[in-house]
Design a protein that fits this description.
It catalyses: Hydrolysis of terminal non-reducing alpha-L-arabinofuranoside residues in alpha-L-arabinosides. Its EC number is 3.2.1.55. By secondary structure, the chain is of the alpha/beta class. The protein folds into 2 domains: about 120 residues, Immunoglobulin-like, CATH 2.60.40.1180; about 350 residues, TIM Barrel (Alpha-Beta Barrel), CATH 3.20.20.80. Helix content is about 25%, strand content about 25%. The strands form 7 sheets. An 8-stranded parallel β-barrel has the order 2-5-8-9-10-11-12-13, surrounded by 4 helices. The radius of gyration is 23 Å and the shape is globular. It binds alpha-L-arabinofuranose. Alpha-L-arabinofuranose (AHR) binds next to loops. The site of alpha-L-arabinofuranose (AHR) has 10 residues, from loops.
Length: about 500
């Protein structure tokens, strides 16, 4: 099928915050332990206990911000259990995630060391559900106060002389559910109280983040914005894509058919409506758009891999996940005036991970490659791309767009066009009219990520089955660019002057 589009290269659409490409790592299953932290005595190559191969891979996709320690874990986490000599740290039960022993070997110092190695911003999520105001306030003091105070001295005693810089702090997580089963009115009051003691020390300005709604809970957003909007810098939104929409049987990560493919993408596209409707409520209380919307948990959620601990949320990742990532990035770009950060759940070995590990082995998932292809948009100027996206349907009734795309201009003046073909069975020819752009002397370079089967994925035996390849199925002629996208693919095109 042939589709048309217009790229307005002379109509800037605002900066795409690099934090839209953020990550989330929780004390859950094998994300932190094994996936990131192997300890200082490990034979797996590491720097200060943190896996070197994982850090190298994450630096390649330029992870801009990392959220930690949860998730549901955050509202049961007592940060003082995770400081001091590791051998004397408390052992506790991770009640949410598999009932396993949490030895607290990865704590505040280890997380800040991880952020140092990744050169990313830390986003720390505090405990409202089972923690006190004092505990949260002291954590901020421990992290960021450079003068003389009980918490600053405690930090120094644990080997960190200088205060850290922490820009993002979340006041509770999913307080409508695992974070305390609160009503929005109650949480709004708690939020106002807790955030008062999240202090800005020594010029470290903290961006205070309120717990926002679950998916389409518009009442939660309404109440929070009305009662606490003026006390927050951002509010969160959580939305997961389940192929079936049912928690009891979510659908499998691989071995699925075209219906599961189609409905997964259809449900992922729902993010667009969620952001639009939540933004409308936010506009009512914050017409200047001072408060940001942070989608700090998003991604696919499938049945766990057979034989694995159900509490570990370990799942495979296929070309379908890469498409979910691509179309979700396109949606975040479209709403970038309001959406300032997003954090995929989760970085390693959990849910829609970008990396899977097994002992010393590591593989990069198709979602990793989607992040790699899209990183060019970080901090770039969005360019409006109007696509006549066509119709993709299985039954003639339910329809989703056949193609989805986004474009930006980076600081060096290069234009980046990212196009997704959502169709599992047909290629798509997209003819884009390049307006406001002199095409004479322009060179185009392309990369494509495509699947050779509907559930094509990487394994430890075949780690490069789904990997980016050079792409040449395009023509630049007569003021336009015509691109032929393979079925189930993401193409990244760079337009630059030679
Ligand atoms: O990402 C897994 C879990 O999903 C998080 O802990 C929680 O916040 C959400 O329900």
């Amino acid at each position: 099928m042939a589709y048309r589009g217009v790229l307005n290269a002379d109509l800037p659409g605002g900066i795409l915050n690099r934090n839209l490409y953020g990550h989330f790592s929780e004390h859950l299953g094998r994300c932190i332990y094994e996936g990131i932290w192997v300890g200082e005595d490990s034979e797996i190559p590491h720097t200060n206990g943190i896996r070197s191969d994982v850090v190298k891979a994450l630096r390649q996709i330029r992870v801009p911000v990392l959220r930690w320690p949860g998730g549901c874990f955050a509202d049961e986490y007592h940060w003082k259990d995770g400081i001091g000599p590791r051998e004397t740290r408390k052992r506790m039960v991770n009640t949410h995630w598999g009932g396993v022993v949490e030895n607290n070997h990865f704590g505040t110092h280890e997380f800040m060391e991880l952020c140092r190695q990744l050169e990313c911003e830390p986003y720390i999520n505090g405990n409202v559900g089972s923690g006190t105001v004092q505990e949260m306030s002291e954590w901020v003091e421990y992290l960021t106060f450079g003068g003389v105070s009980p918490m600053a001295e405690l930090r120094r005693g644990n080997g960190q002389d200088e205060a850290w810089k922490v820009s993002y702090f979340g006041v509770g997580n999913e307080n409508w559910g695992c974070g305390g089963n609160m009503r929005p009115e109650y949480y709004a009051d708690l939020y106002r109280r807790y955030q008062t003691y999240v202090r800005n020390y020594d010029g470290n300005v903290i961006h205070r983040i309120a717990c926002g709604p679950n998916a389409d809970d518009y009442n939660w957003m309404e109440v929070l914005m009305r009662e606490a909007g003026r006390f927050m810098d951002s509010i969160t939104l959580h939305y997961y894509t389940l192929p079936t929409g049912e928690w009891a049987d979510k659908g499998d990560a691989t071995g699925f058919g075209e219906e599961a493919w189609f409905h997964t993408l259809r449900r992922a596209l729902h993010m667009d409506e969620l952001i639009a409707r939540h933004s409308t409520i936010m506009d009512k209380y914050d017409p200047e758009r001072r408060v940001g919307l942070i989608v700090d948990e998003w991604g696919t959620w499938y049945n766990v891999e057979p034989g694995t601990n159900p509490g570990f949320l370990y799942q495979q990742n296929s070309i379908r996940d890469a498409l979910v990532a691509g179309l979700t990035f396109n949606i975040f770009h479209k709403h970038s005036e309001r959406v300032r950060m997003a954090n995929i759940a989760q970085t390693v070995n959990v849910l829609q991970a970008v990396i899977l590990t097994e002992g010393e082995k590591l593989l990069l998932t198709p979602t990793y490659h989607a992040f790699d292809l899209y990183k060019v948009h970080q901090d770039a100027e969005r360019l409006p791309l109007d696509l006549e996206a066509g119709v993709y349907t299985l039954d003639g009734k339910t329809e989703i767009p056949a193609v989805s795309g986004t474009a930006s201009r980076d600081r060096e003046g290069r234009i980046h066009l990212s196009l997704c073909n959502l169709q599992h069975g047909s290629e798509a020819e997209v003819a884009i009219d390049l307006r406001g752009l002199e095409t004479e002397g322009l060179t185009v370079r392309g990369t494509v990520l495509a699947g050779d089967a509907i559930d094509a994925h990487n394994t430890f035996d075949q780690p490069d089955r789904v990997a980016p390849k050079t792409f040449e199925s395009f023509r630049l002629e007569g003021g336009g660019l015509t691109v032929t996208l393979p079925a189930m693919s993401i193409a990244a095109l760079e337009l630059a002057r030679a």
